[in-house]
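pipeline: protein-struct stage 2 | run 1193 | ATP synthase complex subunit 8
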Amino acid sequence: MPQLNPAPWFFIMLISWFTFSLILQPKLLSFTTTNPPHNPTPFTTKISPWNWPWI
């Protein structure tokens, strides 16, 4: 059964993996821009007491 012989398929997998990792991935990553990290502005919540109508 030819699918049990890993010799040709393993080589094809390695070549495609190296092609993607070394050639295509840097080209694809150059198109995406990442957002620079920023510190979120701290905000304080104003806590007001709840006026219960039955008290």
